[in-house]
Amino acid sequence: MLLTTVLIADFEMAGRATCQRLLQLEKKIKVVGEARCGLEAMTAAAKLKPRVLLLDPSGVAGEGFSLVSTILEKSPKTRIILLSERASDADILDALSQGALGYLAKPALPTYLTKAVRAVAAGEAWVPRRMVGRLIDQLAPGQ
Amino acid sequence: MKANLQDTKTAPRCVVLIASPTAGVRSQWTQALKDMYTVLDVGERGSLDRSLADLKPDVLLLDLALHRLGGLEGVQAIRQLSPETKIVLFARSPNAKEGISLLKAGAWGYCEKAIEPLRLRKVVLMLQQGEVWVKRNLIPHLIGELARLTRLRTKDSASHEARLRSLTPREREVVLLIGEGVNNKKIASRLMITEHTVKAHLTTIFRKLGLSGRVQLALLANESGGPISPTAWENRSAGEPQGSTRPKSN
């Protein structure tokens, strides 16, 4: 299997460091860059075209989720996993509707980050089971 | 069948109706579920409709070989006969397109007919807990569909282009540079104006567009897929370097 390239975008140093630490042990995963704000995430994604982008949009006031679709325009093949201290179901749905393919709560990073990166790189989604029903509700017309 | 119904009266159990034209499928699914649920099975369309209307089962496991359904109308027809019944559909080889259309129409689950007995038990359990059941590999397609619908809806609403039209050509130049991630000092030197003037432009731009900061502005600039329409460039100053740092648009 090919190397999975990952870009880490988190305005907090601690968040970036956690992801780095968890991913550097993986042979098939390579962190190709870090971004500290929305603009950096956008330019770095456009330049590096990573397979997976780990994105904590909380540093981008108000417009965090439109960042997802903007980045996808620049790098359509990048799969985005949203990271967040705690996101509501509505937030997650928002991010998914912009094209994100995964969501991970930050406290769950140590357990699931590498699994999530692998799954998403392989074309799967990484969302809590309960979100699937919510997702379908969003699709159904007038429900 | 009558004996089973009486059972449910003494100890109310979840009623599962199995519908498949294949006797083997019916018996396999029944075996998997009968210790936990009241299971009934039908092998043809006519008895399916009758059983639905009479029994109003909690769950219907429907082999698409018995009833092709044809998306929305088929699912709705079943829901009319028994509105509370949760419908799970089984295909010989499931595909994303069919799955999405059936789930959109109100189905609670979609999976392969050759499902393992233990899995099938889990499916029914999930339904009872109010969860839908789809195979993992269908989920990215569902997300893709949501993203597609969202894009369509956004296009309907006021376009960014229209908002940007309220800007002067000079202001649009500033927006373009912000979209490239250029800082105020560099914008000033590129446009051959003072940094103070750049800030003044930005204040006006934020006010006109109702934004609160440059990141929002950069997002907007990039979102509209080219904020500066070709005509906007006609006014651009002759002395400005033509080589743009704007990332190649895809």
What class do helices, strands and sheet pairing of chain A give? alpha/beta
Structural class designation of chain B: alpha/beta
Could you name the ranges of chain B where pLDDT drops below 50 across 5 or more consecutive residues? 1-10, 225-250
Number of strands of chain B: 6
Shape call of chain A: globular
Gyration radius from CA atoms of chain A, angstroms: 14 Å
Helix residue percentage of chain A: 40-55%
What fraction of residues of chain A sit in β-strands? 15-25%
First-to-last CA distance of chain B: 63 Å
Give the helix level of chain B as a range of percent: 40-55%
Rg of chain B to the nearest angstrom?
Answer: 30 Å
The number of E-state strands of chain A comes to 5
The overall average pLDDT of chain A, rounded, is 89
The largest sheet of chain A is: 5 strands, parallel
SS summary, helix count of chain A: 6
Brief sketch in words of this structure:
The complex is a heterodimer of chains A (143) and B (250). Chain A is α/β, with parallel strands linked by helices.
How are the secondary structure elements laid out?
The complex is a heterodimer of chains A (143) and B (250).
Chain A: E1 4-9, H1 13-23, E2 29-35, H2 38-48, E3 52-55, H3 66-74, E4 79-84, H4 89-97, E5 102-105, H5 109-121, H6 129-139
Chain B: H1 2-10, E1 15-19, H2 23-33, E2 38-42, H3 45-55, E3 59-63, H4 72-81, E4 86-91, H5 96-104, E5 109-112, H6 117-128, E6 133-134, H7 139-156, H8 160-164, H9 169-179, H10 184-191, H11 195-209, H12 214-223
Parallel strand pairs in B: 1-2, 1-3, 3-4, 4-5, 5-6
Helix pairs in contact in B: 2-6, 9-11, 9-12, 10-11
